[in-house]
């Protein structure tokens, strides 16, 4: 499990295209400290498994399904990426529950700078809009953020200077894709309520 608190801004140092997958080599001195084969590291919000680790770099394989459902397919050598290791059991919970399972992608629509922060508008896939609410949590490229405004086809977030400086959200521009993971709690609530409504409907129909 992750929390959406990015540990460092890494870099893609190599991309190897395979038949039905892709292998990335990623530089990240912080997240590779103590890393070993089989460990998990979130790359732009996508949970990937460490295949090899040498010095301050690691490699990870990305299957076709992940490339299709995320923005990782747009990465190239030199791309900057947000990196985070899983939360340790006695760690501080700084963000919200992030699984590293991307629900879809959005596109940065516009950026509106202010004196001390920046408002970013991001398009929202129709199938995810019901999970995004004002003041709720959402993960954008692996960054835990609070929704400022929620509409049917977009939402906005407010980025403080620290987030702008230490994550990819500080350099991405209008038209760039971003990975989105909605709050898992919202999906569980929807499922439970749906089951309850279906159960009550069945009981009512039997009377």
Main sheet makeup: 6 strands, antiparallel, barrel
How far apart lie the N and C ends? 45 Å
**Topology as a string of helices (H) and strands (E):** EEEEEHEEEEEEHEH
Q: Determine the strand fraction and express it as a percent band.
A: 35-45%
Q: Count helical runs.
A: 3
Number of strands: 12
Strand order of the largest sheet: 1-2-5-4-3-6
Radius of gyration using CA atoms only: 18 Å
Shape annotation = globular
Mean pLDDT: 90
The helix content is 10-25%
Low-pLDDT sequence parts? none
Folded structure, characterized:
This protein has about 210 residues and is an alpha+beta fold. Helices cover about 15% and strands about 40% of the residues. The chain contains 3 helices and 12 strands. The protein has helices spanning about 65-70, 160-165, 185-205, and strands spanning about 10-15, 20-25, 40-45, 45-55, 55-65, 80-85, 105-115, 120-125, 135-140, 145-150, 155-160, 175-180. The strands form 2 sheets. The chain has a 6-stranded antiparallel β-barrel. Strands 7-8-11-10-9-12 form a 6-stranded antiparallel β-barrel.
